[in-house]
Amino acid sequence: QVQLVESGGGLVQPGGSLRLSCAASGRIFGIKDMGWYRQVPEKERELVAVIRSGGATNYADSVRGRFTISRDNAKNSVYLQMNSLKPDDSAVYFCHLTTPGNIGGYWGQGTQVTVSS
């Protein structure tokens, strides 16, 4: 069984920074894409950033230049450094990864990020 555990969420003032971490455990092989999504109530979950197995990255326009995604393949982990946070960044952030054996991928339980003064 594969588990993804996120950490690093919390309350931060506008302009502040947070670093989210996600570690995958269990029987997991050949991780391909690793990414972060976010969701607010009554809205669809949206892609924030993704990093491919080869290291290529893609960001939502709303976070490009402020957020940085990275991964540590040896630790089956993915990170999201979030700088210059805005109230609109407040959401539950979910970690996601895909493998050749599971096209739909695996999801973490989510971590709350609140940006407020």
Characteristics of this structure?
117 residues; mainly beta; seven-stranded mixed beta sheet; globular
What does this structure look like?
With 117 residues, the chain is mainly beta. Helices cover 0% and strands 54% of the residues. It has no helices and 11 strands. The strands form 2 sheets. Strands 2, 4, 5, 6, 9, 10 and 11 form a 7-stranded mixed sheet that branches. A hairpin with a 6-residue loop joins strand 4 and strand 5. The mean pLDDT is 95.
Computed CA radius of gyration, to the nearest angstrom: 14 Å
Summed over residues and divided by their number, the pLDDT gives a mean of 95
Output the helix-strand order: EEEEEEEEEEE
| N-to-C CA distance | 40 Å
Which band does the percent of strand residues land in? over 45%
The computed structural class is mainly beta
Q: Strand count, sense and closure of the main sheet?
A: 7 strands, mixed
Weakly predicted, low-confidence segments: none
Helix amount, in percent? under 10%
Number of strands: 11
List the helices and strands and how they pair.
Layout: E1 3-7, E2 10-12, E3 18-25, E4 34-39, E5 46-51, E6 57-59, E7 67-72, E8 77-82, E9 91-99, E10 102-107, E11 111-115
Parallel strand pairs: 2-11
Antiparallel strand pairs: 1-3, 3-8, 4-5, 4-9, 5-6, 7-8, 9-10, 9-11
Give a concise summary.
The chain has 117 residues and is an all-beta fold.
